[in-house]
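[step 3/7] inverse_fold.run input=structure_tokens len=425
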């Protein structure tokens, strides 16, 4: 799901629809009872942008589940990244509700903080919850309530176009280990080739990467308005002015375009990035290597996870949680990761040799490098109430400073007030 902001109208609509969710009528799924008195139910399962590529995987998965649960039928629906949020809110507000839904961490947390999804603690054992990497599982735990089961995930690596790096006189076999070193590499690329270092999206994760907390420890107030944050932003502005970082709020699609067009030498992203450059620019793909992500002052390993949630208006929450736990168990996560070039969020999965062995391909390089950081990985919006709104407010502030020339301190003062207001909603 993209993190581009849709403005105040979307925020207003989300608040309105979420208020309907928590106050409206029950879900639209129905069950039936056979002559022997056994209940037969249908669970509606929504995913994001997985059809038709993974039809065989999910058809087999669903058939296996239905065979072991003869009273349950799974109805699988798939929606594009840019449609599922509005589709979900509209569906629930109109009186219907899917039962298991694929959401990113940001929106899963947003839904949880509004009481719009089930607290999974009511249905899962400690053993089941302990199967997932702690930092990733806790990303959607708010005030002790667990609002999502982590599914497929990824941690970022650094992709290097070795052709451009060598043209700039850099040695790809000795890659940058820190953000400062990456900036120096970008300066050298710019000076020797005229190309930029990399592009990035202006989102709130830029703060914790450099050791600046987004919220206070108790998640009740903004904590990012600090001298360190001002210095970090001003340094980023300097890098943009020098051409080290492209001066743009570049979403994932734009980053692909810049890298595949050899306008940038580096890409900070997850292993799924490979799927796009392999198709869009096979020559660039052949010249690309994957190495550990350079760390900032925060020395964090950030995950970018997809999750499964059970909307509060599902008519069959117990069965829905059981199915979500089945989809995200270690065995099925391992299988899906092998099919989709993703990483699992389950501890047992990572013991499979698949995640530590490499055949020298770019996919294998990225997989191994990314997998090594899973045990330390966490989402940058861990337990943040109203996460989507908080991220949008910070992103707008960064845009105003870095792209529109507004004063960093004055803008951070304003964003701090806005975020504090959001947290009080």
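[step 3/7] decode complete -> sequence:
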């Amino acid at each position: 799901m993209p993190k581009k902001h849709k403005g105040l109208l979307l925020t207003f609509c989300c608040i309105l629809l979420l208020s309907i969710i928590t106050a409206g009528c029950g879900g639209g799924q129905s069950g039936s009872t056979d002559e022997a008195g056994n209940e037969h139910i249908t669970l509606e399962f929504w995913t994001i942008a997985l059809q038709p590529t993974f039809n065989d995987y999910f058809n087999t998965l669903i058939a296996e589940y239905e065979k072991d649960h003869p009273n349950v039928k799974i109805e699988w629906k798939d929606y594009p990244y840019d449609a599922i949020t509005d589709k979900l809110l509209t569906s629930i507000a109109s009186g219907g509700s899917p039962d298991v839904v694929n959401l990113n961490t940001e929106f899963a947390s947003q839904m949880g903080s509004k009481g719009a999804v089930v607290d999974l603690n009511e249905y899962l054992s400690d053993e089941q919850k302990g199967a997932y990497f702690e930092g990733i599982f806790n990303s959607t735990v708010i005030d002790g309530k667990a609002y999502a089961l982590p599914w497929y995930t990824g941690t970022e690596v650094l992709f290097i176009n070795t052709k451009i790096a060598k043209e700039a006189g850099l040695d790809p076999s000795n890659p940058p280990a820190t953000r400062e070193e990456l900036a120096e590499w970008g300066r050298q690329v710019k000076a020797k080739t005229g190309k930029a270092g990399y592009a990035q999206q202006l989102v709130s994760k830029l703060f914790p990467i450099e050791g600046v907390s987004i919220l206070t420890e108790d998640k009740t107030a903004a904590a990012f308005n600090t001298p360190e944050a001002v210095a970090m932003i001003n340094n980023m502005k300097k890098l943009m002015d020098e051409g080290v970082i492209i001066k743009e709020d570049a979403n994932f699609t734009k980053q692909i375009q810049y890298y595949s067009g050899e306008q940038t030498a580096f890409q900070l992203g997850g292993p799924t990035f490979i799927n796009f450059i392999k198709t869009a620019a096979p020559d660039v793909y052949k010249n690309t290597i994957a190495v550990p992500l350079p760390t900032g002052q925060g020395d964090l390993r950030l995950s970018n996870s997809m999750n499964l949630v059970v909307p509060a208006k599902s008519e069959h929450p117990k069965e829905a949680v059981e199915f979500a736990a089945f989809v995200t168990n270690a065995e099925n996560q391992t299988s899906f990761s092998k099919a989709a070039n993703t990483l699992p969020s389950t501890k047992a999965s990572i013991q499979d040799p698949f995640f530590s062995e490499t055949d020298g391909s770019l996919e294998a390089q990225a997989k191994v490098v990314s997998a090594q950081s899973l045990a330390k990985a966490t989402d940058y919006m861990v337990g943040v109430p109203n996460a989507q709104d908080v991220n949008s407010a910070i992103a707008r502030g960064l845009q105003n400073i870095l792209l529109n020339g507004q004063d960093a301190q004055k803008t951070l003062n304003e964003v701090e007030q806005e975020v504090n207001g959001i947290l009080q909603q």
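[step 4/7] annotate
The CA atoms of residues 232 and 328 lie 38 Å apart.
The longest helix spans residues 7-23.
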